[in-house]
Amino acid sequence: MQPMGNDKPIPGRPTSPFSAAPPVSSPFLSSGPVVGSEKTAATPLLTPFSSGTQATGYRMPAPPPTRFNGPFTPTQPPSFHPTQDAATYQQTQAPRFPPPSQPATPLRGPPVANSVGSFQPQPQVPTFRMSPPHPPAVQSPPGSNIPPPHFLGPRPGPQSPFQTLSASQASPHFRASPYIAQQGVIPPPPIGPPLGVGSREQMPFPHIGQQHVGGGPMQGLVEEFQSLSVGSIPGSLDSGIDAKSLPRPLDGDEEPRILESYPLNCHLRFLRLTTHTVPSSQSLLARWHLPLGAVVTPLAEVPEGEEVPIVNFGTAGVVRCRRCRTYINPYVTFTDAGRKWRCNLCSLLNDVPAEYYCALDATGRRLDIDQRPELSKGSVEFVAPTEYMVRPPMPPSYFFLIDVSVAAVQSGLLEVVATTIKSCLDGLPGSPRTQIGFLTFDSTLHFHNLKSSLSQPQMMVVADLDDVFLPLPDDLLVNLSDSRHVVDAFLDSLPSMFQNSANVESASGPALKAAFMVMSQLGGKLLVFQSTLPSLGIGRLRLRGDDPRVYGTDKEHTLRIPEDPFYKQMAAEFTKHQIAVDIFAFSEKYSDIASLGSLAKYTGGQVYHYPAFQAATHHEKLRYELARDLRRETAWEAVMRIRCGKGVRFTTYHGHFMLRSTDLLALPAVDCDKSFAMQLSLEDTLMTTQTVYFQVALLYTSSSGERRIRVHTAAAPVVTDLSEMYRQADTGAIVSVLSRLAVENTLSHKLEDARQLMQLKLVKSLKEYRTLYAVQHRLGGRFIFPDSLKFLPLYILSLCKSAALRGGYADVLLDERCATGYSMMILPITRMLKLLYPGLYRIDEILTKGTDNLDESLKPLALTSQCLDARGLYIYDDGFSFVIWLGRMLSPDIVNSILGVDLSSFPDLSRDNNISRRMMRILKALREKNRSSYQLCRIIRQDEQPREGFLLLNNLIEDQTPGSSTFVDWILQIYRQSQSS
Amino acid sequence: MAWELILWILSFVSVISLIAMTAYQLICLSDLEFDYINPYDSSSRINSVVIPEYIVQGLLCTSFLLTWHWFPFLITAPVTYYHVKLFMNKKHLIDVTEIFRQLNGEKKQRLIKLGFYLSLFVIVIYRLVITAVALLLEEDMNLLDSGTL
């Protein structure tokens, strides 16, 4: 995933030390100049391979030039050329990535490449930046929007053979981590400082060992992979692995650099493939043991200025392919003087509607391409005409189903909920059409008449739980702006209304039915606030999961699936009527999240779990998260479909949605915090195309009442080479898909089985990778892995140690396990990685001395207790909560300034002194990095048992916890298994 | 002998109805696969015939047992056991939320059942004919014996 400048690719690279110096060439830029020069390409092609001191027996990979064949004659898309693009690319990327796809360059464009002289370092950059002006398509066939040929394109990763050299020499920004030094089999070249000095400081272990660097036999080898020495000294107990040198994702998620080679693709925040390639054959796919698929976040939050452009086709209607219904996108090609366009997914020639016609220029590109975002951007939003509506666009509607049994009153929940909703009323999207309604319940159902002509809301009690009926035909779900004063009055009185209630029962099932009746006409969002286990009427649940004996047996998984089919049926009905359910669960006792959560699972909702909710401590978290849930931009009554080119098909989908047909996801509501994963399968045994296109289309109603289609398009090359698949692998997407698979697996199998499955997949894939290289390289005693997947072993380990999969009965409460499982099914990649490998920061120094640049001072540490210093103050951030750990010998000054005499576990940390203010600044900065949930602070002191173990030590995933291994042991285990045949 | 004929005629009718119900379920499933109907309709249609199918099949099996027809009983018994097991585990109905995930399995299961019912159909027809012919012959014999012919 994260290119570290060390590595791999190009077999047969010349290994002269000079080649490591980066002739910085952007993959796609370099392809530009030489369009149409295939013939000449043949001769120079040999040059790089023959001239270098080729040390290895590397086979040449399947010769890329084959890519030139076929209908997709690669021509330089004009849009690749804006100088600005090129410049930014060069500036930002060049220094960072030593020599991208250097050998590719000669293949493609001999004159340029040769003149470039692979032996000149940096100054080359300008030359290349100038290259765009080369006419993009001199003799280009019309089809200028084809992505660059794959062998040039998808190698965003560093291609230097000498990682160490290139790392230290070529890239000032290179964030070397110590293990780099070690994994290199090649002794570090004498030139250049030994690995960025600055980078050492970022590491928890400044001590870098280079002792493992191998010697002679490997010298001069082209390094394609990363490796770790695991050779132990015979007779010693030492495992032979230097724990400090293991790769750790301390920088969190790093997106692969696909956009550089495919600038017309949608941004990776919307769509990420597990490997940015498609295998050409079934047999190749069978050797790729990791999931092949995509993670889609259709409505991901975009930074200011990068909003998805909105396109209105007006009378032309949305331009789509007649046969496969693909939306027009930057990769389609126009022919016949602009009167026809060829669909990039199914290659059908379509007529261009008269209103949409535009002439082509000499290169076959439309003249108006710059004015049309749908032809120049990977992500666009179309305004859908009436054909895309089955009914008038619905208004945003919110219905609150609030449990008012005694537990909710005592914990102060009602108060917090009422005030939060009230404060959000102005921020609800879609004003003035927004609809709102409330239903409260304990052992009876209380309907609230919010008719705008009333001055006070009226409450109507229905006690018949077996046959629920609505006391009023309408006025239970009302227009917010009309009835605002009634709603305000209701929310003001809500906390006091049930103050003296002593009712412990909760008739959730009947209440859900009633809410369904109220909402079924309109659809919308149903927010359920559940404080106890549903105990009355249909859908009542019983205590289960308190029997430890069931763990480890075949019945174990039944605890994690809904007990009563009522909930699934209800969920199906909700989805059918466009109702999304969000569950807020607050009970300190068992409340069967497994059953309740299935309501959210099939309706595109979300589960919020606040165990043992107390208003005094949790109110900020609930307030923030409820407000975000209500205020964030939401897409209503949506359906999503992902189309892909011939030969591949999406088969399985993972996330919170309901399938309406084999490939159509029904999403009653969807927002930026939801992501969906899907897996691909090959339909044909052999792929004939060179590029496969993916198109995600989300048809939804915006809060403003407009029907829209959001379309994300991406292209990926078809490859015939397994090592290329590894090279383009995206750890984040793989981990995201794998964790969803693991969670789904726990619903039908034992936890142990789910963990083993993950381990098996990891081992298989590393073994396969090993067989690619082990023979030539005599790699005995070395653990080798692709650079792109260097964090995968650690993430799989932390997945196995995550709350959803960890241990057995006693390790995690069943409710918490299920709630985490439900969260993991929807988390976007970045947050998922954060949850799996949380940040740990030492902050006592920042607190006492202050800092100018907070981001730089907060250095993430490895998650092991060896990092915890008794004199320090640490903060642990998993994206959902903070744990602040106070060392035993921490200076009392700090403790007093931030804590005072407050001994509670959720103390108020804001005090009027410098240290406390700095503390608040740090917390604020960390919270801003993840705005999807509010991280509540818990304080623990060193040796405070059992809380320390429960809150922090068990979560330090590199350490040994009962029933699981340390990181080093894990690596050794994986190494041994991947080595054994 | 007449009751034997009645038994086989009844089994003939019930096997035909079993085949019809299974085929109906299969059609619903493949319609769903090709997106002709939505999962809600599909699953409610399928679920509406699941219990009748189980009842008919169970009655058929018990009637074979009660009439001491060991061979057809032993053939139908595994299916009955399978049905009872599904019913006890509450897995006999199609789950509309998971229908697409289970589609292939459910189809396969019903195809196998259909094949099984078809072979049962052959057996039943054979026995029906045999019984009918035997009955006719017997009648002929009786007629001969009584000297009517």
From TrEMBL, chain A:
Transmembrane segments: none annotated. This is Protein transport protein Sec24-like At3g07100 isoform X2. Residues 15-31, 83-94 have a biased composition (Low complexity). PANTHER family: SEC24-RELATED PROTEIN (PTHR13803), SECRETORY 24AB, ISOFORM A (PTHR13803:SF39). It comes from Ananas comosus. SUPFAM superfamilies: beta-sandwich domain of Sec23/24 (SSF81995), C-terminal, gelsolin-like domain of Sec23/24 (SSF82754), Helical domain of Sec23/24 (SSF81811), vWA-like (SSF53300), Zn-finger domain of Sec23/24 (SSF82919). Residues 635-719 form the Sec23/Sec24 beta-sandwich domain. Residues 730-833 form the Sec23/Sec24 helical domain. The keyword Membrane applies. Pfam families: Sec23_BS (PF08033), Sec23_helical (PF04815), Sec23_trunk (PF04811), zf-Sec23_Sec24 (PF04810). It is found in: Endoplasmic reticulum membrane; Golgi apparatus membrane. Residues 393-629 form the Sec23/Sec24 trunk domain. Belongs to the SEC23/SEC24 family. SEC24 subfamily. GO terms for cellular component: COPII vesicle coat; endoplasmic reticulum exit site; endoplasmic reticulum membrane; Golgi membrane. Its main location: endoplasmic reticulum. GO terms for biological process: COPII-coated vesicle cargo loading; intracellular protein transport. The keyword Transport applies. Residues 1-171 are annotated as: Disordered. Residues 319-356 form the Zinc finger Sec23/Sec24-type domain. One of its GO terms (molecular function) is zinc ion binding. Residues 132-159 have a biased composition (Pro residues). InterPro entries: ADF-H/Gelsolin-like_dom_sf (IPR029006), Beta-sandwich_Sec23_24 (IPR012990), Gelsolin-like_dom_sf (IPR036180), Sec23/24_helical_dom (IPR006900), Sec23/24_helical_dom_sf (IPR036175), Sec23/24_trunk_dom (IPR006896), SEC23_SEC24_subfamily (IPR050550), Sec24-like_trunk_dom (IPR041742). Residues 160-171 have a biased composition (Polar residues). Keywords: Endoplasmic reticulum, ER-Golgi transport, Golgi apparatus, Membrane, Protein transport, Transport.
TrEMBL record, chain B:
InterPro entries: Cornichon. The keyword Membrane applies. It is found in: Membrane. Keywords: Membrane, Transmembrane, Transmembrane helix. The chain crosses the membrane at residues 7-27, 54-82, 114-137. One of its GO terms (biological process) is vesicle-mediated transport. One of its GO terms (cellular component) is membrane. Pfam families: Cornichon. It is a multi-pass membrane protein. Belongs to the cornichon family. PANTHER family: CORNICHON-RELATED. This is Protein cornichon homolog 1. The lineage of its organism: Eukaryota, Viridiplantae, Streptophyta, Embryophyta, Tracheophyta.
